[in-house]
Tetratricopeptide repeat protein
Amino acid sequence: MPRSPHRRFVAVALAALISASAGAGGALAAGGNDTGTPVKSCPRGQVLDEKTGKCVSQSSDSLDDQSRYAYGAWLARSGRYGEAIEVLSLVEDKDDPRVLTYLGYAHRQLSRFEVGLGYYRQALAADPDHVQAREYLGEAYLILNKPDLAREQLREIELRCGSDCEEYRLLASAIADHEKALERRS
């Protein structure tokens, strides 16, 4: 059965965004510093404790929010979206915009777009200057074929960190790719 033009566009846009996201994130360390140091992979149901460097149960009382966030974000960037959601959902600070952003990202990657949008909006309600949430929200808008809303997020990012920051460059590139895909369809 042939694909409709809209369905084909969404598939092409999604593939482009996934490959762009993979190049930007990779399997690097998560956390506030994003040092690029590889993270030790733990079995499902366990999290890397940043203090001890050991894998412990994801529900362990010894884990702090930073360890859960760091490992959950790494899981999300590594394509282990379901596991990322499990770990990030255990963070006690339910208003942490970094956690909300990666919950949104993981849900978006699982094609749960409305859930992802909700998490991005929560992240921005907690911190309107969180440019990574704005970048991911803009990418989601492109997947949903709402480029005007994506460009609005791009303008907001530029106001906060200029046109040289990574989030601006990534979203600008995604918008350009989206526009090229539309031109090829015409």
Notes: The mean pLDDT is 84. The chain has one domain: 5-185. Strands lie at 46-48, 55-57. The longest helix spans residues 5-25.
